[in-house]
Write a structure and sequence with these properties.
single chain, about 120 residues, mainly beta, four-stranded antiparallel beta sheet
Length: about 120
């Protein structure tokens, strides 16, 4: 059974940093492109970033460009989202999702695998 798990969320003050992790079991994670999404109450789901199997990031949303950084550790079979200079408006549930061609997928619902999310709350 495939399971994708996000971790690292929590409560942080504005201006602070968090690093989210995404790991998976039941599949060879390094063979998949992985994306991070977020959704805040009453707002549309937003694709934040995506990283290819090679480790080359391909996309950052304008809202996080320059503040967030995606990376992957092949040896750990994990993908990370480093979030710096956090703002109140970054408060949301954050999801990671994996698909063979995930960086070409815009809709989170079309990813083959996705996690249950980790909550990030930024206090102003």
């Amino acid at each position: 059974q495939v399971q994708v798990v996000e971790s690292g969320g929590g409560l942080v003050q504005a201006g602070g940093s968090l690093r989210l992790s995404c790991t998976a079991s039941g599949l060879t994670f390094n063979r998949y492109e992985v994306a991070w999404y977020r959704q805040a109450p009453g707002k549309e789901r937003e694709k934040l970033s995506c990283i290819r199997r090679s480790g080359r990031s391909t996309y950052y949303a304008d809202s996080v460009k320059g503040r967030f950084s995606i990376s992957r550790d092949i040896t750990e079979s994990a993908v990370y989202l480093q979030m710096n200079s956090l703002k109140f408006e970054d408060t949301a549930m954050y999801y990671c999702a994996a698909d063979v061609y995930g960086c070409s997928v815009s809709n989170l619902g079309r990813f083959a695998y996705r996690g249950q999310g980790t909550q990030v709350t930024v206090s102003s």
